[in-house]
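Hey, I'm writing a tutorial for new members on how sequence and structure tokens pair up, and I'd like a real worked example in the thread rather than a made-up one. If someone can provide the structure for the chain below, I'll link this post from the tutorial.
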Amino acid sequence: MRIRSQDDGKITVQAIAGTYVVLLGMSVDKSLVNGLLGFAIERVDHTEGERRFLQNPLLFQANDVGNTPDHSTRRNPVQEFVWGDYAAKPNHTYSYTVTAMRGTPARLRAAASVQVRVSTEDPDDGTHGVWFNRGVAASAAYVDRFGNLNPADVANREAYKWLGRGLEEALTTFIGQATDNRFALRAGMYEFKWSPVLDAFKIAADAGADVQIVYHAVPKTGDKTPAQNLAAIKKAKIFDISKARTNTTIAHNKFVVLLKNGKPVAVWSGSTNVTEGGIFGHANVGHAIRDGRIARAYLDYWDQLKDDPKGAKLKAFDDPPPKVPAKRPQAKQTPLFSPRTQLDSLDWYVRLAADAKQGVFLTAAFGLTAEIAPVFAGQKDYLRYLLMDLRDGKIEAMRREPSNVVAAGGLKAKGGFKTWIATELQRMNTFVDYIHTKFMLIDPLTDDPIVITGSANWSDESVQRNDENMVVIRGDKRVADIYLTDFMRLFNHYRLRGRAKTPRTTIEPAAGVPEAQRGKLHLKPDDSWAKPFYVANSPEEKERLLFG
């Protein structure tokens, strides 16, 4: 949901509501920029009858005193033109009063104010259900709630509930729709070890549903996944309904097809592996689509997988006809499967991004591969946002292009923050620490957005060697808003953290980091922060105009 409000041309705010996030894009007339110290944001929750100011993790240095300083935006206004309410709840109505603040840090005064009222989305509207986990287990928010405890050691599964943000429940509920012999489930799984989900399949099968699962079992030196999958399957007593997939490079799918009376009616897909780390650790999304045509396409694909075909046979099925479109698809949803003979699907994604008019947003778990890199090459009139799992040398090269805005979850380094993850959260995650999603948004704030989402990483291996699935969704503003708001939640979290010079910042836990190494960021005491947002064609101006 998107709502824009303006007050006498002096200040404008656009609210973009997802499920658990509301983004606020602000802009002010140039006459207010001189002396602008930021924005105070007051929220009224009309559903629960609560009023408060949003918090700012950064403080004016003058306010950074004591162990529990006031972080409200009333005293420490946000010095950004895009800000998020990350404590919103689904199906709630909120009003936000955004006030431009001037004066001095010690004596702030209101210059102009505007109010916007918006309602958050239900995660599931009956056609598309979209669930993002929090994906920031290693953050101060986790420590504030649960200390340095392993989630498994927190009573009543409260840490798991907070980290999963409904993702686990959505998946088990999707499986749980198969309540008797009218239903069937067909699943393709990569990492398949989290017992509550495996138990849900067992419950469905015991209830009379026809349940069949294909799982990754490719023998490879150093890969413990096949053995761990098999052990979990045996423990859950679903060995007789599970088939090993061995004749591929990686059986990387994570999908479930629901059938009723022999007809496919819905599919669960996305990036989430059925593991503790997948559901609760690094950032992931689960996406349910209730569309018989899309469910049929996934079922037909699964029917090929069940006999464990070799690559050539499966490619013959996955390859077009029909060929992927030259530009934007005509259909509302277009499924694509791997392995394929050519890189036609990946080439299509690049063409779609090149044809963008407003912006491109992409998450890359394993870095920016050569195949997808052209999306971020050259100068554009719009911004391209890239969110990666780890920061490496390629990121600095990407940042030098003024059309690109880049953030990453962590550093390729030892000690500090990564040590805290390893010792205190027991390394829930495998292969990827922070960002595991694989999606691209093209022109998400227009009336014709494109969302590309699924299991495949942006690489030739994903397209030509692995078992993978993706869906291209066109024209669904609700889906685009949910994806965009959670993208920006993660992006802004890691962008702010990345601006610090040490592993310790104002939004990270201090465990294991000497006091002398703890860098702090503070708000600017003047309007210098705002000036770049009014430089013609600067990245900052483009972001202000895009969101505000």
